Amino acid sequence: MRICVVGTGYVGLVTGACLAHVGHHVVCVDRDAAKIEGLNRGVLPIFEPGLPDMVSAQRAAGRLAFSTELAGAVARAEVVFITVGTPPAPGGEADLGSVEAVARAIGAALDGYKVIVNKSTVPVGCGDWVAMLVHEGLAARRGARLPAGGGGGGADLSAGAGSETEEPPTFDVVSCPEFLREGSAIHDTFHGDRIVVGSASSRAIAVMRELYTPLVEQRFAGGDPQRPIPFVVTDLGSAEMIKYAANCFLATKVSFINEIANVCERVGADVTQVAAGIGLDHRIGRHFLNAGIGWGGSCFPKDVRALTHIARDYGHEARLLQAVIEVNEAQRQVALVKLQQHLKSLKGKTVGLLGLAFKPDTDDLREAPAMGLARQLLKLGAGVRAYDPIASSRAQAELPALRTCDDPYVLAEGCDALVVATEWPEFRALDLGRMRLAMRGHHVFIDGRNMFEPAVLKELGFVYVGVGR
User: Fold this and answer.
1) For 251-304, what is each residue's pLDDT tens digit?
2) What is the distance between the alpha carbons of residues 420 and 430, in angstroms, rounded to a whole number?
3) pLDDT tens, 382-421?
4) First and final CA of the chain: distance in angstroms?
5) What is the rounded distance in angstroms from the CA atom of residue 271 to the CA atom of residue 59?
6) Secondary structure of 82-96 in the HEC alphabet?
7) Which long-range contacts (CB under 8 A, 24 or more apart) does 449-455 make?
């Protein structure tokens, strides 16, 4: 099928490359000419394992292209994906400015029947709103009267057209939320837990089913036909809610185990053992029960706040979600509090941060706990060094006072304390004894992700401090 993906950020690039890999012909469009020029030279604006090779292979095969020309890409496509960002506005609600601009532009470029797929994370009800905007964009181009209600496809907008016999463009808007984890997005696309499609149009659902058949049936190189992906059909609003509900539930699990960790510290229990014990209950599960210094990233913070805001707009106070946010905000202070407990005044002390990205296998610094901690330490007069396998250059640009190191052993030189802020797997292979010898004075080791065994670190001479242990 012929696909247009509008937006070449994280979701758009992964979606476009993966759909090309399973045989579709994809054009990814972005108004940022510098970004498109870079993509055409093989330079990706994000870090995601495996994505550069996939993009290169699909471009070479002629199934993936990049362009700034929206109108032509939309006109040629059967399916148009909207994958632009919806960052949080100052009040916590989603900023839908980019979605609005794209929807109008798609309407102005419509030619024949299209399925318009909203893959951006948007509040419930935005599917109908996007349909209205597409109608407005199309009507502005054709000089037609706007249809009442602004619903989905099928509206006759031929009034004012150049020919009485010209077939009016029609469309349907569907919701198809993404469930990609940064660092494993390609795997999540090819072997996800489900594909959700929300629409009231049987025609649109049939198109989406055809589009996703290679993934559902695992008919592609590297697919596993023994493990098909469920294809879940819902109404438009339910699909939009599924995305928010999923992320909010996962954020709740993390805040829950962090709350338990705080109790464990006070009663003398070990949260890692508690998590292992409760995680064996199939009703609970082991995933997202790792206590630490809080969650960040591009999804959890904005989606929990956005759903809280949506609920408030409809007269409901989402108290549990508000508590999830409050617990996480408090948890992000844990590392600073522990440093103050062991180093007392932080002025003049040097702290080394192991990890900067909000999670491993990404260079994403959005609401990363490490970056928040670095800012607080600098404000209190501490010297801050940091090492991250991928995100150091971005962090340096965002926070010039931060000293980034290319070597974790150089990082440790002269530090009073080390803080594990991101659980990069390669940290497990570090020679921690060598790092301790390079430190000075206090030898405090804040294990903000509970990666290491306390007894081993203590034997090496560290003052080991975990979370909930």
Assistant:
1) 999 999 999 999 999 999 999 999 999 999 999 999 999 999 999 998 999 999
2) 12
3) 999 999 999 999 999 999 999 999 999 999 999 999 999 9
4) 53
5) 48
6) ECCCCCECCCCCECC
7) 449/290, 449/292, 449/293, 449/355, 449/420, 449/421, 449/422, 449/423, 450/271, 450/272, 450/290, 450/291, 450/292, 451/420, 451/423, 451/427, 452/420, 452/428
Taking the C-alpha atoms of residue 28 and residue 19, their distance in angstroms, rounded to an integer, is 11
β-strand partners of 195? 231
Which residues belong to the active site? 299
Instruction: Extract the tokens encoding 134.
Output: 């597409």
Name residue 464's amino acid: Y
DSSP 342-357: HHS--TT-EEEEE--S
pTM over 0.70: yes
Look up residue 154 and give its two tokens: 């099928």
Q: How far apart are CA 88 and CA 80, in angstroms?
A: 24
Picking from 354, 352, 350, the residue whose alpha carbon sits closest to that of residue 381 is 350
* DSSP bridge pairs for 116: 80, 173
Q: For residue 75, which of 34, 32, 40, 29 has the smallest C-alpha distance? A: 29
